[in-house]
Amino acid sequence: MKRRRLFGPVLVIAAIVGLSVSMTACGSDDGQSIRVMAAASLVDVMDPLSDAYGQQHDGASVEVDAAASSALVQRLKSGAKADVLITADTATMDQAVADGLAADPVVVATNKLVIAVPKGNPAGVTGLDFFTTAGNRSVICASEVPCGRAAEKAIDATGGTPQPISRAVDVRAALGSVTSGEADAALVYQTDAASAGDQVDIIEIPNAPVNEYPAAALTDDGKDFVNLLTSQEGKQILQDAGFGTP
Amino acid sequence: MTDSRPATRLPVAVSGVGVLGLAVLIAPLIALAWAAPWSRIWELLTAKPAMQALGLSLGAATLATLCAIVLGVPLAAVLASGAIRPTRLVRLLVVVPMVMPPVVIGTALLTLLGRRGLVGQYLDAWFDWTPTYTFSAVVIAQLVVAMPFLVVSVEAALRARNIDAEEAAYTLGAGRFTTFRLVTVPEIRAGIGAGAIMCFARALGEFGATVTFAGNVQGVTQTMPLAIYLSLQRDDQSAIAMAIGLVILSVLILIGMRGRWLPALS
Questions:
Q1: Interchain proximity A144–B233, CB inside 8 Å
Q2: How far does B236 lie from chain A, in Å, by closest CA?
Q3: What is the dihedral of CA A90, A91, A94, A100, to 10 degrees?
Q4: Domain ABC transmembrane type-1, which positions (chain B) (predicted)?
């Protein structure tokens, strides 16, 4: 009797394991798969870029590890493996180069900060002064991540001090605070604001600091992906997503 | 208290795999201790952001645990008595937060209490107050994530309790509330203690729901796990020091509570 009772659960577990193995395998069956560590702000454009890479390399798949650039460098430092690293500012890439984790980075895209406000701009935000007034529901990134440093630089340039209601752990979290309506304004990259579509309005910042996205191949397999980023096709994909290209 | 059960002879295969299981759990802790900057640990731990985060974490987790006891013990009593039917479905709903990704719990809390949320829009309109990015949000996030641990523990204690004393209390003319307060609750205090400690520990480590619902405001909502996550991106030394501090603190709490509250664990 005991044996028969065990049979059902064992069958269910076997089915789940079998299903998950076959689902994982689907992704990496054809061609060589590569792993790309990309700054959080690149997460939307990685899909079309991965497709383009797959078409060039008979179906090779691209695993994307997206996080704040500083978190990615931290992961590499602790021994994580990847073929390509793309960061959201040169300072973070320089750190990776200094630590011997990456070499020969090339700038593949540019981006700039904008003010994202909920659709209709309920708080009537007009410019960066909204971020320097205590009591306003503004959000900028934490100073540990690139979008936070860029935001502080932009606000410093106006002579004010940031008085955000919260400091987001990455740029997507900052955007989320606006799309959810919790904040009346957030400083995010132009491309992130664009990805939110109808949910946000964008206010341009005069003389906004431009940040560069350097990419570095960490392995020979990664070189083809960096070449794709600098090719005409790659530039077109990046521009379609709202990035500037060098 | 020593284990009173007779020693059993385990097959070598079982004890071998058991030791491997133990290694899986403690190897990361050993590595953390190995990587820790012991010579600077006191200086790193007493730095202002670390102290602020520690104080905040302890305060929020304590409040969340107190709220969980006040709300969770009666809930466990309701479940154990089968007063709401179907009990199995209600019990399932109670443990759902234990299997939900905390980030999703945070998002769900935003849709409930956020400025445009189901209830939050009225809080904003009537009281001009929104819990998001406040200390209350930290406590609420921790409460939702951690209370199920308490409820499960207390319900198990209620089901296993001896009801003779309650019967006697009724026979002697005690009312329902008096009996619950003076007989039932003392009878299950070990279960409440164990549940409260599980709940406190879970609240102390909470990250996902907090960062989503309460944001990251230094000195207001930046708890230890958030401070650790962010400092990992800049200065891993201080992150590891804070992590070690959290581990030591949890162990101290467990040891301190063991005798009085936790006969089940000692």
A1: yes
A2: 8
A3: -130
A4: 54-259
Specify burial of residue B249 (Cβ count, 10 A radius: 0-12, 13-18, 19+): middle
Cis check for the bond before A214: say yes or no (omega within 30 of 0).
no
Q: Which two tokens stand for residue B109?
A: 């809390």
Q: Cβ contacts (< 8 Å) between B102 and chain A: which residues?
A: none
Task: Output the six-digit token pair for A147.
Answer: 């979008």
As its CATH architecture, domain B42-261 has: Orthogonal Bundle (1.10)
**Hey, what are A99's tokens?**
């630590």
Interface of A with B in 51-70 (CB under 8 A): 68, 70
Tens of pLDDT, residues A20-78: 766 655 444 445 789 999 998 898 899 999 999 999 888 888 999 998 888 899 899 88
Q: What ipTM does the predicted assembly reach?
A: 0.76
- Structural Rg of chain B based on CA atoms: 22
Q: Are residues A42 and A122 in the same domain?
A: no
B211/A70 Cβ within 8 A: no
A1 within some domain: no
pLDDT digits (tens, 9 = 90+) for A105-156: 999 999 989 999 999 999 999 999 999 998 899 999 998 888 898 899 999 9
The partner residue sitting opposite B233, judged by closest CB among A70, A177, A182, is: A70
